[in-house]
Amino acid sequence: MEVEKYMTEALSLARLAMAEGEVPVGCVIVQNGRVIARGHNRREREQNALLHAEIAAIGEACKALGRWRLDDCQLYVTLEPCPMCAGAMLNARIARVIFGARDKTMGACGGVLNLFEEAFGYHPRLIGGVLEPECAALLQDFFSGLRK
Questions:
Q1: Catalytic member of 22, 54, 60, 80
Q2: What is the mean pLDDT of residues 62-85?
């Protein structure tokens, strides 16, 4: 399945983030069946609260396409986006957002609230739970390792 293929690539980026000591979240942005941007969490390494996987990937996609409107792109991310990232997706006009694991603490696509259902002028299509067991297990392994 196409969505699983791209989520698998996002999972690879999440594993890279984990190897770097970051919360394991990975993201890819796809346009016309081709990955045009990738991102993984870099908050700890860069000491920058803004460096979530989605923000990094959106920045890379804008640069690759030479424009800020990503209305012909799909974003795949291993963890439900937070309010900051969901806001960036709305501003970038991402067409479709696909995520893996639900985030009941900071999720802004249904976990806590759903920004995409609010009265903004743009509403991306939303698909959640793609490869959720794999995405959730990676996060659980990371946080259980921190507690040890």
A1: 54
A2: 98
54 has catalytic annotation: yes
Tracing tokens 């640069």 back to the chain, one arrives at 63
pTM of the model: 0.96
If pLDDT is split at 50, 70 and 90, which confidence band does 10 have?
Answer: very high
Asked whether the beta carbons of 110 and 102 are under 8 A apart, the reply is yes
Nearest CA among 93, 99, 97, 76 for reference residue 28: 76
Cα separation, 148 vs 135, whole angstroms: 21
The CA–CA distances, whole Å, from 16 to 3, 27, 30, 87, 92 equal: 20, 11, 19, 25, 25
Q: Cβ(37)–Cβ(61) under 8 Å?
A: yes
Q: Tokens representing 93? A: 């006009």
SS3 label, residue 61? helix
**Which residue spans within 51-137 are E strands per DSSP?**
73-79, 96-101, 125-127
pLDDT at 3: 95
Q: Can you spell out the DSSP letters for 43-58?
A: HHHHT-TT--HHHHHH
CA-wise closest residue to 97 among 80, 69, 118, 74: 74
The answer, yes or no, to whether residue 146 has pLDDT greater than 80, is: no
